[in-house]
Design goal:
The protein is mostly helical. It is built from 8 helices and no strands. About 85% of the residues lie in helices and about 0% in strands.
Length: about 240
């Protein structure tokens, strides 16, 4: 189901302001996805230069958050929004925070790549690289879908993001099992393994932030705050209502 809360105001400038704010947030999200992919590529390829570039560009996402927060404040002060407009603006404010934190996590993956290169690490091995690639694909797909759901206020697509949660968790658990075997085989690798755990956990958190954004889509569309609810139950409940 798709609706557009940015259409239909008698003041056309208000429509444009809401659309511009949402567009700016979506642009911020695209940058986070790009940063995440670059960070994982840098780790897999041992490219410290690209990793450093990701870390340095993280500040741009911080500045985008500040600009977006200013726009949220200005809209509330100038338009005194009510009903679905207020829900949209409040939800976008929360999405902005999730995207900034997801950008931090992408930079953390890049920092992991830099640290491994600095140490001249024997890790990561092929199996671990596979897990990083799989987790990055899942996390980026979840984030991309959550942004598409936000762009279209699409509840169905938001629920699809929730459905990806379990796959991300399973991939993380599998990666952790492989890393534990490395430590058992060679205790001198413990420092490098810990660094990789931080990287994998960062990718898992990016997926979590995507889920948070999907929750805000449901809030915009339904006026229902679904944070802290069991997502499997939520999928079942909302799917049942659409029949």
């Amino acid at each position: 189901m798709t609706i557009d809360p940015t259409e239909g105001h008698t003041v056309r400038a208000y429509d444009r302001e809401l659309t511009q704010l949402r567009g700016f947030v979506l642009e911020m999200g695209e940058r986070v996805i790009e940063q995440t992919r670059s960070a994982v590529d840098a780790l897999i390829e041992g490219d410290a230069e690209t990793a450093r570039r990701v870390v340095s560009q993280e500040r741009k996402i911080d500045y985008m958050e500040l600009d977006a927060d200013d726009e949220v404040f200005n809209l509330i002060a100038k338009r005194a929004p009510t009903a679905i407009d207020l829900r949209l603006i409040l939800a976008l404010s929360k999405v902005i925070g999730d995207l900034e934190r997801a950008g931090d996590k992408a930079a953390r993956v890049a920092a992991c790549a830099i640290e491994l290169q600095t140490r001249g690490s024997r890790l990561p091995e092929v199996k671990i690289l596979h897990h990083f690639r799989q987790m990055a694909e899942l996390a980026c797909r979840m984030l991309s879908n959550s942004l598409d759901a936000l762009a279209r206020t699409d509840v169905d697509l938001a629920l699809d993001v929730f459905a990806e949660d379990r796959g991300l968790e399973m991939e993380f658990d599998a990666a952790m099992r492989h890393l534990i075997t490395f430590v058992f085989e060679d205790a001198s690798l413990v420092g490098q393994v810990i660094e990789l755990v931080f990287g994998l956990k960062s990718l898992e958190r990016i997926g979590n932030h995507a889920g948070n954004i999907a929750e805000q889509v449901i809030y915009i569309a339904k006026g229902q705050d679904v944070r802290y609810q069991n997502r499997e139950n939520l999928i079942a409940a909302l799917s049942q209502r659409r029949r």
